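re the bet — no i am not wrong, look at it urself. input seq straight from the record:
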Amino acid sequence: MIKNTSKNKLGILCRLLGYMLKVWPLFVIAIILTLLSNQLALMGPRFSGQAIDAISAANGVDFEEVKSNIVKMIICYALSAVLSLILSIIMINISQKIVGRMRTELFEKLIRLPIGFFDATSVGDIVSRMSYDIDTVNTSISHDVVQVMTSIYTVIGSLIFMWNISRSLIIVFVVTVPVSIIFTRYRSKKVRPLFKLRSKMLGELNGYAEEMLSGCRTIQCYNRQKQICKNFDNRNEEAMKAYYNSEYYASAMGPTVNLINNLSISFIMILGGILYMYSSAGVFKTGSLFFISLGGIAQFVQYSRKFAGPINEFANIIHEFQSAFSAAERVFKIIDEEPEKVDDADAKDLVAVKGNVSFFNVGFGYTNDKKILENLSITADKGKTIAIVGPTGAGKTTIINLLMRFYDVNAGNIFIDGIATDKIKRKDLRKAFIMVLQDTWLFNGTVFENIAYGKEDATIDEVIKAAKAAKIHTFIEHLPLGYDTVLSDDGVNISKGQKQLITIARAILSNAPMLILDEATSNVDSRTEIQIQEALHSLMKDRTCFIIAHRLSTIKNADSIIVLQDGKISEQGNHAELIRANGFYSKLYNSQFN
């Protein structure tokens, strides 16, 4: 495999050909059909030329010869059309298999990428690559690849036929063809960056649209529709400009090459007419270099159009390939992303987890120039509850990201039961935790399936028990189909509080020894919060718990409360101790309840 295959045309072409080789039986059939179809199409002008010669024969019209050649011409063109239709169907099949595989590889890579990738890349841009960019590649494979194969065979075949008809007329192409090739290469180098920019701008536009649509309630609440529309119009204008520029400069290739080809055909007809006059006058004898018949001129003109046509189409194909290559580059860029770091060869299985957790002098920053945590040390013994509070940006969620190894620490280490987390298999580490996050996630499926997601082999009785513990069972029973009720995408047909309760039921169903609660009750009312706290009390029993909360009423009973400020621990103790200390925590608590 060529290095940097996501960044150069040859590498991208090799990768696309690699996909084709995986469906090589169909591709071989497509090549055979291409050869047969084009050979039959190339035979047509020959028979038409022979029919013209039979009509213009000096000894009178040979009607049988004319009839025979016309019938042969019709048969050739008809069979060529049928084979072309079959070829198109096969190429559509090939293209769908290829793009299907590309989508699978892209999605499988996305699932294995680190969380940092998704923090830095918008969902809209990712969806744009999976839909628009892959569809662009699909169009190129299903149509342009056939066109390339057809063009190559047609150009070579036409050249051979023209060589046999009149070698002297071919000299016209000695001038016009190099001009076409030089112009096409020059123009394509100018156009390719424009197609890359087009794909980039469309991805950014989709990302912005996805972001704004997901926050439409907030936009309407703050009456920001006009500003959002203005921002969208600006981005849309930039995307339209990028699209226009790429198409504008690419569109110049086709007409220019077509002009050159039309001039070449005109020169052929003029030169051929002169040669025919001298040939018919007997100046050029049959078999000589410059001799040509009327039927020969007709054949040569038809073959010259077949020869020039693919060259003209080649300019358009280059245009389409530029777009496809830019799209494929964006797809391959994700496929080539480094997946989440594999476990070390000596990584250990995490079995019989007790739940003793400790941070030792941990330092971390998402970028090299900005530290989020510095020299952080925390100890959480088995079954204890640790609450983490602090102002926005203090590093509370970062602690959870490091605990789950969504990111690796820059300094220090984190230990589970005395084993450094970077020496534990990620699969085992993450299975040891239950997570209930502020941003709930439900998928398009039944209520039962969404709750059972926490335990693969969960029974309906276990799901109901978990739902009762999460205080959501009564609500579910009143749904049209109970636990078989299908939730729409991300549970938009139920309230945020109900979505949170379902995710808590999912967590209750799990039997992991450690629990992470990240603003788990932020989307429910006070009365429901009390019910959830009762449910969580049993869930937290005998589990090591980490709680991030802005509503301090939820952490009063925590064994230890850690106050983070600027990435460092400024205070630590239980609720009563921190209130007596009259520090940041005390002021924060009093500001919420006084």
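see?? Confidence is low (pLDDT under 50) at residues 1-6. told u. also The chain has 19 helices and twelve strands. so pay up
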